[in-house]
Structure formats: C-alpha cells, structure tokens
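Note to self: user wants both folds in one dump. Writing first protein now.
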Amino acid sequence: MEHALSPATLSELRSPRPYPAVSVLTPTHRREPDNAQDPVRLRNVVAEAKKQVEADPAVTRELRADVVEQLDRAVAEVDLAHAEEGLVIFAAPGEHQVWSLARTVPERVVLSDTFLTRNLVAAQAAERPFWVLSVSADRVTLWNGGVDRVTEERRGGFPLTRSLEDPDAERKERIGDLPSTFRDERTRQFLRDADTALGEVLREHPRPLYVTGETAALSLLDEIGTVTKDAGHLPHGGLASGPPDAVWQAVRPVIAARARQSAEEVAGELESARGRKEFAAGLDEVWQSAAEGRIRLLAVEENYRATVRDDGDHLVPAASGDLDAREDIVDEIVERCLETGADVRFVPDGALGDAKGIAGVLRY
C-alpha cells in the first residue's frame, strides 16, 4: 500500500485517464474492536464500485472487464492488519493503486476521467510527514515518519550497508596507522554516499529531516554533509537497525515540540490577522475565501469534520447520505488552499476557539 505522496505522484494521479477512472474510499480503523467492520465495509464498497461500472452504458465490455480485474487486484493488495484511518483504491484500465491514509475518509465511489485526490492531499498535510536518517558506521537507514509512528523506507538505495572489515587493517595496526571508525576514509565516503542518496530522496519528497547517530557520526556529517548538515541532529546511537518503535520514541519529543511551536505560531498569526481585518473563520466564510484564492494561511483543527450542501450562496449543514451532501468539504478546502499556494497547518482540537474548527489569514 502507498503512503508517501510526492508532487510528481500527485500530478500523475491527477492526469486524465480513459473512462472510467474509479476512486473507492472507505474509512478504516487501527484497533479492535472497530477494525472488525473493515473487511465487510471494504467488500461492500468495492462491490458497489463494480456495480456502477457494470451498469454504466458508457463503459464497453472490454473496459468493464479490465477495471473489474484491477479492482480485484487492488483488494488483494490491501493489508487491513496494518490499516490506518482511511483507505483509497484507484482503478482504471490497465492500472490500480492502494493508498493507506492516517486521516479518515467518507465512504464513496466516484467514476470519472481522473482520480479523486483531495483526501490524499488533506491526509498528507494533516500527517506532517518527516524523514529520520539513522546512521552507524556500517548501516544507514531511512525512516518514514508520520502522526504516531515511523516505518522503514526502502527507496533511493536505502538502507545502505557495508562491511567494517578493513583488508589492510593488520598492516595499518602494525605501523600505528589504524584510524578510529569515524575518522577512517572508507567511513567518510560511506556517509558521503548516504548524504548524496538522501539528497535525491529529498528532491522528490521534501519534508523535515532528523538524523540520529553517535556524536562522532553526527560531527562527521556536520563536516562532510550537505542535506544532512542542516537537519535536526539527535545524538542517539544504535537505531540504524531499528526497531521502528525505538526510533519513534527517540524522535517523539522533538516532533511534539515542533507541533507545539507550530500551533503557537498559528495562534499568533491569526490574532494578528484579526487586528488587520484579514481574518476568516467558520466553514462558510473560509470556503468562500478559499474559492477566491484569498487564503494565505489555513488553520484546521485535527479532527474537525463537517457535512454540508451548497444552497447556491452558502454552505448549510446536511446529514450524511443526504442528496448533494458533501462529506469531505474540509478536505476540499485544504486541497484548494494548497493549490493556491496557502500554508496549511493542522492544530490540536479546540485550539481555534470561537472559529469553530477552521480559520484563515487572508492575503487581502
């Protein structure tokens, strides 16, 4: 299942496909007993997708068989044992993808000529993803960090490994020329290679970076590194081989401090915007400002959700399942703001007070 959404991947997902490009969304659950319902819900929503494809007169028999097969292949790749908060399946003639999200999604099926990406975009923004590079003399591991965990990321050649045996060690020891591990030229080159490989990853997936390792390793990266030199350094060795939970526990205080700092910065920006009368609050006002491209900073409480319908001039509350109900309006706003260059920040529930879950700083 896919987790990391890069700008290039998003652009590719948004490109037109032969009809039908099918998007299937369903909420999932991390823990018991709620996760017991996930297999049934998945089976039912995929069955509904197949039903819509088979009933659509615009879909030829050949395309119908292809898309149904792609849906079956996608379902076979779903790993509900490691589910997060939402699942998105994309299927089109000749292709399929499965995305696991750390943010819930409404249950729905959409047939179009493009995939529905707004929920992926909002989940990525809410997750505040980061990278952790764990360094040792013989292994460098890249970890993909999210809301409450890290997982090993196998891309860009990671993990990098090497043998610590020096074929010339006996002669060097005899003449007193055997350097310490992190002064050895082979180690220096090994960490240069890791720095270069990481640079390629960051170009495609830019996000905050933290580096863990012994003090000597971090000092060497300060000396020879490029992208690693400017990262947040955590002097904690022994993490290059994991386990993931140990890495998460090491970086967790830093991530929590960053989240608190971000929330404080957002509160200050919003308060200042109130004074300048460049402030929007509440779903309807923020939605209209987002549609006009006026929002510079969007703040959303982490678990804020709303179901509405558009009466032509305003958004009005609606019940889930109502005709024309929009159950992911918050994700729509997040995607729209990101498309118009806004900074989108998710803050703890209750942090926005009377703004009722969502607020923005306006450009004008």
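First done. Writing the second protein, which came from a different request thread.
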Amino acid sequence: MGHSHHFHVDQGDHSITVNVGPGKNGEIELLVNGKVVASQKEHGPGTSLLTGELPEEPTRPFRVRIRQPHLIPSRPKCTLELDGVEQPMPERPMV
C-alpha cells in the first residue's frame, strides 16, 4: 500500500470519514463532521477497528472496520457498522 486512502459516507446530517495513511506506519484517522474522534498510529495486514459516536441526542455509537490486504497487493476496504447494520464506505480520491 504505497499511498493514502480516503473513505467517506454521509449519515443523516453528519459526515463520517476515514483516512488511511500510506504503508504500515501510516496513521488511520476517524473523523465525524471533520473532527478527529479516533486514530490508530500504525496498521498492517488484517483488520483495524475504530469506534466513534454521532453527536445526536442520544448519541449513536458506531464502528468502522478497515481491512488491509494480506497476501495480494490491493486497496483496503472500509465498512461502517451503525445501528447493527453494516455498510461499505466508498473510497474517494484524495484532493
């Protein structure tokens, strides 16, 4: 994985974004409405899990899973789990 990846989904009035830095030393950031709510300093092959909350009353907790390829060089996949429903997060080009 030689470059950064950016995943984004709008959920009601909120935006959820995941930025995956390059290489296994790249940081993973989880943003809600443009603010970092969770991060992981390093990642490698396998699955990383980050959690956050949508700022509603009551708050709505969610999880994001980032799957890094093990053997075959390919792009990571990102899945949002909110209210017990899993939804793939589309990748967007970095601008």
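Dump finished. Worth passing along: The chain has no helices and nine strands.
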